[in-house]
Amino acid sequence: MKTLEDVGSFIRAQPQIVKLLEAVEKIGLPGGSIGAGVIRNAVWDHLHGFDPELLPDSDVDVIYFDAIICGLQRDLYI
Prior knowledge:
- There is one protein chain.
- It is elongated and about 45 Å long.
- By secondary structure, the protein is mainly alpha-helical.
- Strands 1-2 form a two-stranded antiparallel ribbon.
- The mean pLDDT is 85.
- The chain has helices at residues 4-12, 15-27, 37-47, 72-77; strands at residues 33-34, 62-63.
- It has four helices and two strands.
């Protein structure tokens, strides 16, 4: 994996990651995405001979930004 296109092709071939990305899209959070750790870990595992089909039993960070509802009070509420 040497280019961004290589990484993109690799990720599109990972059904578990695609499911996660589709789930975040379905939720419809403004600017919602999955933290890069999922991608980094999958690429790392692939490059080091681990099975990329097996996501570790860890959390997946979902992030978003809502420009309409933002500020300290909102952060403290969550």
